[in-house]
Structure formats: structure tokens, C-alpha cells
UniProtKB/TrEMBL annotation:
PANTHER family: OS10G0403700 PROTEIN (PTHR46368:SF4), PTHR46368. Residues 8-127 form the Gfo/Idh/MocA-like oxidoreductase N-terminal domain. Gene3D superfamilies: Dihydrodipicolinate Reductase, domain 2 (3.30.360.10), NAD(P)-binding Rossmann-like Domain (3.40.50.720). This is OLC1v1017548C1. GO terms for molecular function: nucleotide binding. It comes from Oldenlandia corymbosa var. corymbosa. Belongs to the Gfo/Idh/MocA family.
Amino acid sequence: MAAAEPIIKFGIIGCADIARKVSRAIRLSPLSTLYAVGSRSVEKAAKFAKDNGFPESAKVYGSYEAVLDDPDIDAVYVPLPTSLHIKWAVLAAQKKKHLLLEKPVALNVKELDVILEACRSNGVQFMDATMWMHHPRTAKMKEFLNDPENFGQLKSIYSLFTFAADDIFLEGDIRVKPDLDALGALGDVGWYCIRAILFTADFELPKFVIASRNPVLNKVGVILSCGASLYWEDGKVATFFCSFLANLTMEITAVGTKGTLRLADFVIPFEEGKASFSGGVKSWFDDLVTGWVPKPSEHIVTTDLPQEAQMVKEFSRLVGSIKSGGSEPEMKWPTISRKTQLVIDAVKTSIDKGFESVEVIS
């Protein structure tokens, strides 16, 4: 009889709004438990624990350091502003805490490499918190994209993630402040768009990128809206648009020589328990060119756990295999994070250089 998988004890560093969702995910995952939370004050940490279903036995700390110094904590989730990631992620790795890090993972790939080296040298698992990657729909989409008979060779990708932020957000959110999250919309919603493009392209990096002209910046120079085009040597092309200034939209369209994949809710599904995508295969016009033959089909995928709990479950499984089975950290996740960051950097450089073509160098 196989031994039961260990339950991973999580500490949360910081009480950002998104930590509410991940706290719930840690509770829902069968392989994890909420063990501790730390904030800059005990009062804030205690209120967060009470409001978000932490067990009564959970530890409440008035500093981030105290969480990392707790010897019983296996892993930490870090939802702090991006500018603080390099300090606290590196320290977490040095304290042998496995690291689930909110995106964007760093301000640039130079910082991320410091974080990843700390994880590697200390034998800890790294994963970024791009939740949609763990929805079972994502695996089904990959099957469709990899099907040579029904999708063929990838030719084009379009990705879009926007939401219309209110004045309170645009004036005060950390994502619009240069000292906290200097990448703005590019690092936040743009991260998802670029990850979607790389996922669709089987994580093959583009050769170069060109940022779209006329990005919108706020008065302190943080990006509120931008886009870019990505180009591969074999002729593939991708475009994306991300914005804090347009209605909530989150789409992927991928076009192959034989098929087309589309979905309109890739970051957060319309419904928590099920999600879908459409697949058009060898589409053409009907005889009078008044309709499509065959029509795209809808593929519905159900899940017993929400995607963020699936993420925590997978992360916990990897941590458990290291903790109890002597396994090495899974390098798939840091590799994907680094490729996403490389493209983010290239787009930002293209914007800064007047929309020049920028080569993506790994």
C-alpha cells in the first residue's frame, strides 16, 4: 500500500487582496493546510486569518521574517508587490521554504535569475501563481493544439486581457505605482497574455518583439495599456493587448493550418466548476457561402477543484515528493516563468526604445 502524500504546511507573507483567493485554495486542496500568516502588524495578520478561514491553531505573526523563521512551515505563498520579491523570495529560499510566488515574479529577468538561483542552490520548489495553467481545460487545449490532424501547424496567436479599473484603482493600487509594481498593466494583465502565447507556441521563445505604438501611461510613467507583436523564425506571429482601461475581456485565439482554438475566459473561467473552448477543424463555407461547414465544436471540461486549488495541489505534490521522497525540484515551472519574464522584458525595452524591434535572448 502506497504511503499517503504529506500535507504541506503553508505560510502566507502579506495580506494582499489576491491572498484571500489563494488562502481559500490552500484550504480546498487536499494536500495543504493554512499554517501561518505574517503581516507588518499582528493585528492585520490576525484579522486576515479570521476573515479567511484559517484554523484556530494557525500561527499569526507581526512580521514576514517570523513566518520564514518558523521551522514547521514547508512552503510560503508570497503576494507582495513585485519590487519586494527579490528580497523576500530569496530569503524564503535561503530559509528552505518552497516558494509559490505571485506574478509578475520580478521586475526583470536579472532579478528573477537571482531568485531562481536561490531556489536551485537551496533545493526548493519554485512556481509562479499563474492559476489558469492548472485548470484541466488547459491540458485539453494542449491536446487539441498538439493534434496534427485537427489543428496542424501553428500560424498565428492573439491574446487579450483587459479590465476597466475604477478611479480608486488608477490612483492608489500598487499596480500603478512605480516604486511597487513598475511594470503596471504589462506585468499584471500582460503577463497572462504573454503566458498564453508561449503556452500555445509550446514555450518556444519568439525571435524578436515589437511593442505597439501609443501605450497609455499614467502621470508617473507606469503602463496602463499596451500591446506588442511577437515573431518567430518559422513565420509564426502573435499579438497581444493588455489594459486597465477597457471592459473585462480575456481571450485566446490560436490558428493552425487545419484548426482554430478560441476561448473567451482563459484567466478566470465564467464558471468555477466548468470551462470550455471552441475548436474549429477544417472549416469552410457552405455551398452558397452563407454559413460554416463544419461549425466549430464546444469542448466542455469540468473540475472538482477550482483552478487555484489545482495549482496549490500540484505545487504541494511537488513539495511533498521533495520532502518525503527525495525528489529534485521540478524545473518546468521556473523555466516557464523565466521565458515569460524574458518576453515581458523585451516588450518593455521596445516601448522604452521607441517601439524598436528587440531580440529575445535567453
